[in-house]
Amino acid sequence: MSDVSEERTCTIKKGVAIDAYVRAEFPILRGSSTPEEHARHLHHARKEFEAFLRDHRSQDWIRLSVEIVKQDQCSECGREWDAAEDGDGTIYCTSCDAHLASRIPQHTEETT
Fold first, then answer.
1. Each residue of 15-69: pLDDT tens digit?
2. What does the buried/exposed string (b/e) look like for 19-28 if buried means 16 or more CB atoms within 10 Å of the residue's CB?
3. Which of 66, 68, 42, 47 minimizes the C-alpha distance to 58?
4. Is the pTM of this model over 0.85?
5. SS3 call for 46
């Protein structure tokens, strides 16, 4: 029986979407002085926006945007990429200990 263990390697998956939502910005809210006041304004604006959607009569502008939350992830374990470096300079994933595979293979040419 062989006692050789295979070293796991991984790559970094860049910009993986992990969440998405629609954000509405209401111009009146920019002057809120405290977080409590801001929260009250948001609740009021949400109620007005729901009413606007029901009756379509409001002339107020409301800016909507799609927000996508992204993160870099380890290809081996799928968790957020958090790297460390061991004493040999090898970079590895702190979640699963898989070593980062070289992006560009290193070729050495021997000259004689």
1. 999 999 888 777 665 566 788 887 888 888 888 887 777 777 656 666 677 888 9
2. eeeeeeebee
3. 47
4. no
5. helix
